[in-house]
Amino acid sequence: MAVARITDVDVIDIRFPTSRELDGSDAMNPDPDYSAAYVILRTDAGDGLEGHAFTFTIGRGNDVQAAAIAALRHHVLGRSAEAVCADPGSVFRALNGDSQLRWLGPEKGVMHMAIGAVVNAVWDLAAKRAGRPVWKLLADAEPEWLADQVDFRYIEDALTREEAVALLRKGKDGAAEREARLLTHGYPAYTTSPGWLGHSDEKLVRLAAQAVADGFTQIKLKVGADLADDIRRLRAARAAVGPGVRIAVDANQRWNVAEAVEWTNALADLDPYWVEEPTSPDDILGHAAVRRGVAPVRVATGEHVQNRIMFKQLLQAEAIDVLQIDATRVGGVNENLAILLLAAKYGVPVCPHAGGVGLCELVRHLSMFDYVALTGTTEDRVIEYVDHLHEHFRDPVTVVNGHYLAPTAPGFSSEMHAASIAAHRYPDGSFWAADAADADLAERRKGTNR
Ligand SMILES: [Mg+2]
């Protein structure tokens, strides 16, 4: 039989008009249109299986992100589907090792996120071919094979391959019991839906109370635009949820270091659980200073941390209490494996960033693997949950009683419905074409009224 090859790498700019509802609004991002620079790997295997994945962006620039993914096409076109699925790390190394494209990073920004999309599409295809969800594929894998998926370059001073194998071997102890527990109980979640900056106080209080009624034990509020507003909103949320529910606050990089300390301490009476992204994601020593200045409030960051090397330094500098991986910010599953291993070694809990479009769908696989076969615990660990745009995915998340249920469908849960792609492709999908026609009509009406 002929070897099945990757025959097409389709790249699609997909956007959702979320800015119109102020969902997702925070102090730095007042009007995001949640978007996906989406990639589909097709093969000639004749089994109908495709690898789907994407980079999450918030609107303008999604075309730039899509162009970066397209620039990687030649590295995967024509490659054996079986070979890449048996070793997704080989794809990570090939993409990351492109010496000309590397100039655009290295290992950071648009190009690195593009690598993550292609690598994640390979994992989706590999898991579909294996008939298992990605979390299970990872949890069942041999420690040596998993360690081979990690690029230890630049992190060996903090974590050697031998240490990684030892952590993964230890993670195998009791994995079967934990897998059974995961399948019945799910994995703890917290919700950000009540706390967007664009919500009225009334909506905040209503959604916060609803979150507790729905079984969540942690919610999150966006802060950082106006201190008096933040105190008022946090007080209202605290009154609505009571003292036993954790409330995290998220500044989305709004502050300088001293300001972060001052502002967080001004909120301390209302018992915020963690302060997220207090300052620039690149400021390791700044995060360490904030952490010293706001204790016992915890410091969390990660959704904009660009690679494993930055995470390594945040851990080495004791700059964070909570590490927030993101499924599409770094170089895909392979680099997130490195980051999960670093966090396990340093004993820092991982509470993934999610929301956006599709991030909840993807990142649950990584936390579930971590629970079943790496750290073996969910203590002080929660995955972010935001309740929108899930309807566009073929294997959407289900959250019951404040817990993500474990996905059982083969793949990475990253595939959107064909109808959603057709409607939201930018700018020519049916939604955007109709929207442009409406805007055009409104403009012409304005013209005749003048
Ligand atoms: Mg955040």
UniProtKB/TrEMBL annotation:
Mandelate racemase/muconate lactonizing enzyme C-terminal domain boundaries: 201-297
The enzyme's E.C. designation: 4.2.1.68
SUPFAM superfamilies in the record: Enolase C-terminal domain-like (SSF51604), Enolase N-terminal domain-like (SSF54826)
Gene Ontology MF terms in the entry: L-fuconate dehydratase activity; magnesium ion binding
One of the Pfam families matching this protein, by short name: MR_MLE_N
Catalysis: reaction(s): L-fuconate = 2-dehydro-3-deoxy-L-fuconate + H2O
BP term (GO), one: carbohydrate catabolic process
SMART domains, per database record: MR_MLE (SM00922)
Domain of life: Bacteria
Family matches, as PANTHER family: ENOLASE SUPERFAMILY, MANDELATE RACEMASE, MITOCHONDRIAL ENOLASE SUPERFAMILY MEMBER 1
This protein's name: L-fuconate dehydratase
Native organism: Streptomyces pactum
